[in-house]
Amino acid sequence: MSHESRYLSQHELVARSQEVRKNLLLCAPALLVLFLAASGPLLVMLFYSFLEAGNYGGVKYQWSLDGWFNVFMVRDIFTDELGFADAHLSVFWRSIRLSIMTTVACLIIGFPTAYFIATRERKNRNFWLFLVTIPFWTNLLIRTFAIMELIRNNGLINNLLVGTGVIDEPIQMLYTDFAIMIGMTYVYLPLMILPLYASMEKLDFNLVEAAYDLYATRLRVLRRVIIPLIKPGIVAGSILVFIPSLGAFVTPRVLGGGKNLMLGNLIQLQFDQGQNWPLGAALSIALLIIVMTTLLVYVRYAQRSGERND
Amino acid sequence: MTDQVAITADGVSKIFGHGKDEVAALDNVSVEIRENEFFTLLGPSGCGKTTLLRLIAGFEHPSAGRILLHEEEISHLPPFKRPVNTVFQNYALFPHLTVAQNIGFGLAMQDKPQTEIDATVAEMLQLVQMESLRDRRTDQISGGQQQRVALARALAPHPRVLLLDEPLSALDYKLRKGMQIELKRLQLETGITFIFVTHDQEEALTMSDRLAVMNRGKILQVGSPSDIYDRPAERFVADFIGDTNFLTAELIESGPETSLLKLPSGKTLTSHPTDNDCGQIVNIAVRPEQATLTENLAEADLQGTVSNIMYSGTDSHFHIELSPDEEFVAKVQNSGANRRDWQIGQIVGIKFDPGAVQILRD
Question: B88 and A206: CB-CB below 8 Å?
Fold first, then answer.
């Protein structure tokens, strides 16, 4: 008996270790891709940010903190005086400001849209969701040029407004922060609508009726019942819009016209004309830190609201 | 109970859909529900009872007709402007609020001072015996407890009328029996008019002061439970509530006090007055327990052959074949004086109790 059971347990052990090995083997391709595509380049960036800049781009393999130093400070080439890198800080500030504005704009437009879709008949919802996702099918650059066509001085909107006599002179919209915000709102709106819809779809509309029945006006139903219950969707959508906005490159490049830089453009500049790879690497890592911090706050927040929904 | 009217539905119709898909959920319904009464809307699913409730609550607006609360028209007021509260079928408790916050929600939305809210919430918690669970989340309490919270939440703002949309249907049998007694107690204690929607005829009979039987968007009959049970006006009402035997008879005389019927057997008997025309064949209904079996065929109203006997504890059901396609069921108490050991195949006489025969409206 005991011999047999020991044999069985040994057999089980062998089976289990085989199982573990098989799982690892199955995971290997994914882990490899993850390392090569994500962690690897990141480590290279981190490494480069602590090296000295090469004369014509590239890096010299010599330890230096200049890259990180140049993120925040600047040394005057003539007087050798130290000062804050105002240009960089203003780009940081513009990126954060525009990303927040974009997120808020997406929320304001996305909320009623998601509510509209979630309150349609079930069979018709997929059609509306399909419409929301259509822009994803087109190249980002083409979509951005389309926005450009709408808002430039001789574009559709200005021509319409001038033509109908609402304004005398075209409004300068293209190549402003406003243009960047409009562009990013358009591009990232589906990323807000989809998670909002997902949580609204789960919302029990009996609760809305119950609140309505208990003397809550429409605005109060929204504030006291709907918003608290779909908070996870609001948080997820906001993060999904805020993070790519912060690192946006194409939209600010095309619609900002090269003068209104955002972080993505500043980083690109360092690797291209600026020929300061360590600074570019340090800026990238700084962007990553901002994103990670935002994510951490989000995870905390989501955990807290998750606990309440257990 | 006073005779003052709380809710009046005056020729109310509700049509859903457009064109070809048009469905009349309510078809010209008029009813008066009195102050302080426990009024039940009873009917099968899809009969329009919930639609009528939702019209009173304000979630829907009538396509035609008016709804009045204490003689004041409320047909087009939004729900938050009506002093009427609802207990929902699935309770619809706010999952992000505690038990106490749920109960206080209506008062908070009326901008009542916090001290008043706290006092009313405490009073309501006591009323539904939930004091110990005031700070629980609503998903941490049982179905029966959620039911009590839903009741307390709807009662807290002291509505003029409380609407209950099949509130007991999600509870198991024992809990439901308990809550039936509880609801009745709450209605008596608070003195609020309760309008209760159910498809359970037994629930309707035991709890209501008056009830309305509905079918296909119409109210067929309104009356006290005993009115409805003993004097069903229509075949649907007689059939929906309790068991009934349907027979035909010829109406040979119709007076203001009584009417005279001639049964297929040739026997005549007197019954209540009716609007039906004389000389007509009318439908009549007889409850199984309102007939006795007898050996004396000459004295019996009908006669037939015992075809089946179903024993069910307190009583037995005798299936009696009157003709090849007509059957009569008589319910006889097993401990009663009328008990006989009838055998299958035996010919028996059926004698109706006085007042047992109900003439049904066409």
Answer: yes
Q: Which of B183, B204, B235 is the last residue of a domain?
A: B235
Q: What is the mean pLDDT of residues A212-232?
A: 92
Is this prediction's ipTM beyond 0.90?
A: no
- The two tokens of residue B46 are 């899809």
CA A204 to chain centroid, in Å, comes to: 30
pLDDT tens readout for residues B252-304: 888 888 888 888 888 888 888 888 878 888 889 999 999 888 888 888 888 89
Q: Residue A310's closest chain B neighbor by CA?
A: B139
Q: Indicate if B13 and B150 belong to the same structural domain.
A: yes
Structure tokens of A89?
């800080």
- Same domain? For A90 and A75 the reply is no
Final residue in a domain of this structure, among B235, B255, B289 = B235
Give me the number of domains chain A comprises.
2
Q: Is B126 helix (H, G, I), strand (E, B) or coil?
A: helix
How far is Cα A177 from Cα A45, in angstroms, rounded to an integer? 29
* A–B interface: beta-carbon pairs under 8 A: 63
- Tell whether A225 is within 8 A of chain B (Cβ): yes
Inter-chain residue contact A215 with B57, CB threshold 8 Å:
no
Within 8 A of A214 by CB-CB distance, chain B residues are 80, 85, 105-106, 109, 153-154, 157
Are residue B85 and residue B209 in the same domain, yes or no? Answer: yes
Q: What is the DSSP string of A220-275?
A: HHIIIIIHHHTHHHHHHHHHHHHHHHHT--HHHHHHSTTTS--HHHHHHHHHTTS-
